[in-house]
TrEMBL record:
GO terms for molecular function: oxidoreductase activity. CDD domains: TPP_PYR_E1-PDHc-beta_like. This is Pyruvate dehydrogenase E1 beta subunit. Residues 4-179 form the Transketolase-like pyrimidine-binding domain. It holds the Pfam family Transketolase_C. InterPro entries: THDP-binding, Transketo_C/PFOR_II, Transketolase-like_Pyr-bd, Transketolase_C. It comes from Symbiobacterium thermophilum (strain DSM 24528 / JCM 14929 / IAM 14863 / T). Its cofactor is thiamine diphosphate.
């Protein structure tokens, strides 16, 4: 079994899907000869040609809108947005059209389309290159959203997203693109949307997170075990919508304590929704208030200041101490 980086797993998923289904087309800026800003589409135009790997002008609203039309008329577009903040110019297409096709047509049409989005911080990029946009789109009914944390899930979730009959926002943790390698099966397989993964079992608290912060949480859990003997259960949500509520609530009922980790700004975030869901379904099992480890209510800082904004294992460990000693 090959050991791939996360970005190689994404490239492999696109190649496998396009070989299997001739209706799949890719759209985006510099995705052809250049292979994409992060090289996710490297080599695909040579194999599938410019009619299926379509270089688009610097106009996100235009090519996302074109992809919606393609999807409604029988193709399966996978659109790449170069950086998370660049989806904002296409917000009208996503919020008012992409997400509403099934509802607006009373089920006569669906929109089988994926938007791939390099997401979050950690690479010390410029403004609009390190946003946490999951909060913007989780409040729009009709959109599914996934966020892999490793190469195996990256390929399986992307293939599942492409096969889904409804639109999926595929959030890629750009900080992990080339951070490590892991075994990835050849050929076609899927990781089902809507299923979380328990990546570390424990009994003293539950840590909920997704994307790059699965690794932050695992690092903090190991520190908690070595320093205090506490065993934290870490859950990789993988799918933000649909959400695997059964796994979340089952774990919290077992441990009685929970910490939610996200680098989005603190106010109005998905992390707050997770706290509310735990209160709705497991309040009587809680031994302490649920803790949140988040970003701050400011734009992502530039360069080295980014390290002060993004949650690290030390901040997660502090939250674990708070819920464990409450």
């Amino acid at each position: 079994m090959a050991k791939l980086t996360l970005i190689q797993a994404i490239n492999d998923a696109l190649r496998v899907a396009m070989r299997q289904d001739s209706t799949i087309v890719l759209l985006g800026e510099d995705i052809g000869i250049n292979g994409g800003v992060f090289r996710a589409t490297d080599g695909l135009i040579q194999e599938f040609g410019p009619e299926r790997v379509i270089d688009c002008p610097l106009a996100e609203s235009g090519y996302i809108g074109a992809a919606i039309g393609m999807a409604v008329n029988g193709l399966k577009p996978v659109a790449e947005v170069q950086f998370d903040g660049f989806l904002a110019p296409a917000h009208e297409q996503v919020a008012n059209h992409l997400s509403r096709i099934r509802h607006r047509s009373r089920g006569r049409f669906t929109c089988p389309m994926v938007i791939r989005i390099p997401s979050w911080g950690g690479i010390k990029a410029l403004e609009h290159h390190s946003e946490s946009i999951e909060n913007w789109y989780l409040n729009i009914p009709g959109l599914k959203m996934v966020a892999p944390s490793n190469p195996y899930d990256a390929k399986g979730l992307l293939l599942a997203a492409i096969a889904d009959p409804d639109p999926v926002l595929y959030m890629e943790p750009k900080r992990l693109y080339r951070a490590f390698r892991a075994e990835v099966p050849e050929g076609y397989y899927t990781v089902p949307l809507g299923q979380a993964a328990v990546v570390r079992e424990g009994t003293d608290m539950t840590v909920l997170t997704y994307g790059v912060h699965v690794h932050t949480a695992l690092e903090a859990a190991e520190q908690a075990a070595s320093q205090y003997g506490w065993q934290a259960e870490v859950i990789d949500l993988r799918s933000l919508n649909p959400l695997d509520l059964d796994t979340i609530i089952g774990s919290v009922k077992k441990t009685g304590r929970a910490v939610v980790v996200s680098e989005a700004p603190r106010t109005g975030g998905f992390h707050s929704e997770l706290v509310a869901l735990i209160n709705d379904h497991a309040l009587e099992y809680l031994e302490a208030p649920v803790a949140r480890v988040t970003g701050f209510d400011v734009p992502m800082p530039y360069l080295l200041s980014e390290d002060l904004y993004i949650p690290d294992a030390g901040r997660v460990l502090e939250a674990m101490q708070a819920v464990r000693t409450y």
